[in-house]
Amino acid sequence: MELIYKSTRNDNETVTASQAILHGLAKEGGLYVPSYIPQLDIPLEELVGKSYQETAYEVMKLFLTDFTKEELCYCINSAYDDKFDCKEIAPVKKADGANYLELFHGATIAFKDMALSILPYLLTTSAKKNQVENEIVILTATSGDTGKAALAGFADVPGTKIIVFYPKNGVSPIQEKQMVTQKGKNTYVIGIKGNFDDAQTGVKKMFSDEAFGKVLDQAGYQFSSANSINIGRLVPQIVYYVYAYGVMVKNGEIKLHEPMNVVVPTGNFGNILAAYYAKQMGLPIAKLICASNENKVLFDFFQSGCYDRNREFVLTSSPSMDILISSNLERLIYKLAGESAAKNMEFMNDLASKGLYQITDEMREGLSDFWGGYATEEETAGVIKEVYEQAGYIMDTHTAVAAKVYKKYKEATKDMTPAIIASTASPYKFTRSVMNAIDPAYDVKGDFELVDELNRLSKVAVPRAIEEIRTAPVLHNTVCETEKMQEEVEKILGIREA
Questions:
Q1: How far apart are CA 9 and CA 12, in angstroms?
Q2: Considering the entire predicted model, what is its pTM?
């Protein structure tokens, strides 16, 4: 049975999986959601011992029903190969009594690689399937990790261009260096004078501008997205939770059919939404623990049912979570609203006009799968130091937010169900924050001196992604005001003279 996708803002808009991947964003700014959540059709015992690639096929075939087996296997095998530095792709490491699902073994050492390694293959396959002749322009806003992972995935992919906007002073030095040194004739990186939400709003505005879309079409281009708003990003993220369950059983952490909890550090809500979908598919997940940093808009939402972005934006040591508009939450709101596009649209209009919306008590009952917590900057640094000293395991700042929130969850609920903590980035990506947490005396050292010191302490090899940028030249140095974002896109595409 073919699974179709519908828009969260228009009941009449339906597309196939490949069309949803191609479009990225639905009309009126809506997001594509599956018309139903398919159930895992493989017995749980068969997951144990399956390779990552085999697990990916079992999950993705259920969501991408207009792809043939050959097409899907081509995409999966092209993505999950020696770009990853370990054959497991997403290994589970135990430290300090917790299980860390390491999602950072790909080309850019962050969890975004898990989906952005496969998205170029899904997208180009979708283009062929739908007889698309236009060049596809990947337009993306990043809070740090998506940008580099998307750039690496799409660099020199025929028939595509990729344009990434990032907050000029809102990413780590390593994240910025990774992006601005990106090679590829079709890659463009632009810093904006604003924060991630400004970048994301600017990108969404271009996507939903129908007049601009016609201009692009006449010039032989069409937009698609590499952000987690694209279901081609979201579906591959479901895979690693299903895979992790098999590993937890194999490692003896849980018995077959027993539940596990999942802890996810999140800003844009995509990574934890993927875990929610995995649970809806029948994976035995008990609680979904949503970990926020000091930009705790999601924590406050789970506490009150009110989503309110009217607050001070805080720059933290976990910049990929420095977000006040959690785009993927819209997919959950739509489901809680009885899959009514009209009701969802009311909430999203309130968010755009007033900066907040309040869900009903009935909708709040649908949040029972989730538990929200947050960690302060001091708590984040404290848990990095604590786990290093007790277990010799060094985690990045985002993973540390999740680790601290998990400790708070256990203290508050006394729930000792075994848990997987999504470890979303290598500590090498945030060396200064990580090393300062271990000992503030490290702050006098240079960025790459800190890389070598982290290598000495962790006994984990310096990733290729870091070695490559030590001496790489800066290739992208454009910075613009947020209101000039469309002008920059027009210049790149030759629609406007420079």
A1: 9
A2: 0.91
